[in-house]
Amino acid sequence: MKSRGEALRDYVIRRLLLMIPTFIGITFVTFLLCQFVPGGQIDQIRMQLAGAGGGGAARVSISRNQLEIPDEQLKELKAYYGFDKPFLVAYGEWLGKTARLNFGESFRYNEPVLQVIADRLPVSIYYGVITAIFTFGICIPLGILKAIRHRTWVDNLTSALIFVGYAIPGFALGVVLVNLLAVRYQIFPLGGFQSAGAEAMPLLDRIDDVVWHSVLPLIAYLVSSFAVTTMLMKNALMENMSADYVRTALAKGLSWRRAVFVHALRNSLIPMATSIGSLLGIFLTGSFLIERVFNINGIGLLAFDAIQTRDFPVVMGILVIDSVLLLIGNLVSDLAVAFVDPRVRFE
């Protein structure tokens, strides 16, 4: 019979090994789509040459609604962008480079993909961390309050406010906030992460500037995430408060406060523990719509622009990081549930 520590070790090893085929499956399908989707770099060069009138060494002619490039130059372009190899060979080479953390060079920025992503990470990490802190720091206590004050005016009022916010898309609220509080009344800045020339400001002024730029985007980020977390906490606590073990504890003389805030609350945190792993996703947290509205150069907007411009190395680089964080996050969530719920066995 294995001890709990040995069973935990074997479980983690199995999960880590299962991540490998899952990661290969995700990247294989996406790499396949990137190879055959129209509008890639070569197609964009065709359009640029056509717009330039076809002058110069590379002559472009329109035949049967297609733009053509001389075969020799087409081969050179395919070799330059890595489209000259069979799919399986190209994927194998990409996978080998990725294992060495070499994601290639961005078509659009002509820089290493890791550098392009690293330039956007601080903004995404900042908004992701702040959003997580506000979401869990407010929603869990609010859910507890709503469960204790069920069907009172506190519960009814907060439910109305929460579901009104849940019904409003974050980017739509962002547009309203920008037009109202930034354009009309000029209380907050129009967008961006910080003001021009903020690098030369004193440290406290620079922090104040970043916070002032963050108010409206954070409201847009948080408005739709409150409902799910709050109601999940409330419903879980109410279910445990009505469970037999709580009634038995009260019948044996245990105080109501201790029965609720010690026994029922601990079991109610089990559903919340399933979302702990998603905190790893703060590195790539972002909504391209909200980032577009507020002109925030985060990962979400980078991924959206990369898909639009067919910057496949950046697309694959973001996918790799996102996939790894998702797989590790799922494992962390399972371990968190096992830590909170002693009934879980690693068999």
How would you describe this protein?
70% of the residues lie in helices and 2% in strands. It has helices at residues 4-36, 41-51, 71-81, 87-99, 113-148, 153-167, 170-184, 203-222, 226-241, 244-251, 256-273, 288-294, 299-308, 312-340; strands at residues 61-63, 66-68. Strands 1-2 form a two-stranded antiparallel ribbon. Helix 7 crosses helix 8 and helix 7 packs parallel to helix 12. The longest helix has 36 residues, at 113-148. The chain is globular and about 90 Å long.
Helices and strands in order:
Blueprint: H1 4-36, H2 41-51, E1 61-63, E2 66-68, H3 71-81, H4 87-99, H5 113-148, H6 153-167, H7 170-184, H8 203-222, H9 226-241, H10 244-251, H11 256-273, H12 288-294, H13 299-308, H14 312-340
| Weakly predicted, low-confidence segments | 53-66
Instruction: Please provide the count of β strands.
Output: 2
Order of strands side by side in the largest beta sheet? 1-2
**What separation lies between the terminal Cα atoms?**
11 Å
Number of DSSP helices?
14
Average pLDDT figure: 83
Radius of gyration: 26 Å
Class computed from helices, strands and strand pairing = mainly alpha
Write down the overall geometry: globular
Largest beta-sheet characterization: 2 strands, antiparallel
Written as H for each helix and E for each strand, in order along the chain, the element string is: HHEEHHHHHHHHHHHH
Strand content: under 5%
Percentage of residues assigned to helices: 55-70%
